[in-house]
Amino acid sequence: MKVAALLAVLLLGACAAAGRGPRVDVDVPVLGPLQAALLYHDRSHTPLPADQLVQWYGEVCGEKDPQARQAAAAAARSELERAGRDAVQAARWKVPLRQELGGYDLVESAFPTTLRAGAAVTFDRSQYCGEPLTYRVVFRNGADYALVRIPHDEAVAFVRNNPARSVVHDLVVEVVGAQDGPGGPALVVDILGIRTRDAASGTTLAETVAGR
Questions:
Q1: Which domain holds residue 137?
Q2: What's the CA gap between 39 and 90, in Å, rounded?
Q3: Taking the model in full, what pTM does it have?
Q4: Cβ contacts of residue 180 below 8 Å, gap of 6+?
């Protein structure tokens, strides 16, 4: 009887573990405006616009005093070189993406996202302190993450507390290439997984890995 009871406990534990679903490791560096530029030029083998990036990076932007600005630019240039070396060594990145989910699909038990094949986030001159720079991060497999599956009861509670259905997706990605086009230079990435958080409470709503 003791053996049977122990086996039952172990089986229940295994079922509970399986029911938790995939876990997405979001403890990776954030892919922001600087990293998008550094990685794009590394992948495309094109010259980095270092002078323009230096004017934005660090404490240079907004500094009015000429001497202080010159010192800040020198420090920023050194930091930029270090950031470039670090960027090319990272295997995975996190791209935070805030959005409002679509209406709940009862058939799919899921909310639609805005992610599609070729969907992108854009960093423009507003993120580069007015410098004429634009870089995009294009999600090659965005269509695999067009839905966030949440059980019905949890979905009802989420919408009750957050009628706008506003969430933050932490997209874990890997760089697969670079391309240029009408929208400007683009870093192409594949999404490896997404952790979706309630933007109001910060609670994790779902962790999604394509095909699982």
A1: 25-208
A2: 10
A3: 0.83
A4: 44, 186
